Amino acid sequence: MLSFFTLLIISSPVYALKKVIKPVPEAKKITAEKDTCVNSVYPATNFGTEKKITTGFTTSSKIMFLKFRLEGFSIESFKPDDKAILNLWLEESTGELKTIETEVLLPSTDWSEEELTWNNKPSLYSSGIAVGLEATPGAQQIDITDLVKQWLNKEIENTGIAFYYNWEDFSRTYSSRENEKQPPALVIGKEREVEAFLILETEEKKQGVIETVKTGVERVRGVKIKKPFFSLNNLITANNILPLTSLWIASVFLLLVKVFRKYPL
């Protein structure tokens, strides 16, 4: 009887139960105000509405531009131990599939997302911030803390940033702000909070299961949970007492049938 009962339990559908509650980090996320790229092969073409932005040097030169509005931030609110991390989502790599060592560049003047082309692009100058453009698709973080401090201190004008390198045969294509699921973002906060925020952000983009809720926690969704016919945690409950009783009666009946077949009257 036990073996039959166990067999029925094992053969019942098994469903994954997953409950994760995580505190929401206090880091602030700023989505790009504008982003685009320009291409030397299409010198008069504007790519401001595309869902992807590209930088690299292959059959043509491509320069990627981004800008973040630091509204609500000031140098006083930016604490000494705060970090400002640029979070990009790499969609595709071609050419040299290695980390391209380059730097963050600064446009000499402001630019328009709807009008920028290769022909009217601003000149670029060094920010002094080194960066490695990775080749593996997924999230990439770039620390631009020093640059954000300069913007907030009014040491230099915030005209955005740019990425370009023409000493390697490579291309890196990222999601633009038109891709609402994976837009470029600037995350500002304490280093530990920023790291936690970016981990959750990456999980959300990869799995699509993390949802921020108003209660100040994050919960995992998207996992279909179905209550099993029998509760393995507590077999005898008000919900399953009748099925268990029926199963017990059926088991006893089958056992009696087996006994009577083996030892007929």
The domain tally reads 2
Please give the largest β-sheet. 9 strands, antiparallel
Instruction: Tell how many strands the DSSP assignment holds.
Output: 14
Instruction: Pick out the low-confidence regions.
Output: 4-19, 209-232
Global morphology: elongated
Proportion of residues in extended strands:
25-35%
Key traits:
265 residues, alpha+beta, 2 domains, nine-stranded antiparallel sheet, three-stranded antiparallel sheet, 14 strands, elongated
Structure in a nutshell:
By secondary structure, this protein is an alpha+beta fold.
Could you explain how this protein is built, in words?
The protein has 265 residues and is α+β, with helices and mostly antiparallel strands. It has two domains: 2-17 and 226-262; 27-220, no CATH class. Helix content is 22%, strand content 32%. Strands 2, 3, 4, 5, 6, 9, 10, 11 and 12 form a nine-stranded antiparallel β-sheet that branches. A three-stranded antiparallel β-sheet has the order 1-14-13, with helices on one face. The chain has a two-stranded antiparallel sheet with strand order 7-8. The relative contact order is 0.22.
Please describe the topology of this protein.
Layout lengths: L1 H10 L9 E3 L4 E4 L2 E6 L12 E6 L3 E7 L14 E14 L4 E8 L16 E10 L4 E6 L1 H8 L8 E3 L6 E6 L9 E6 H17 L2 E3 L4 E4 L20 H22 L3
Antiparallel strand pairs: 1-14, 2-12, 3-5, 4-5, 4-11, 5-10, 6-9, 6-11, 6-12, 7-8, 13-14
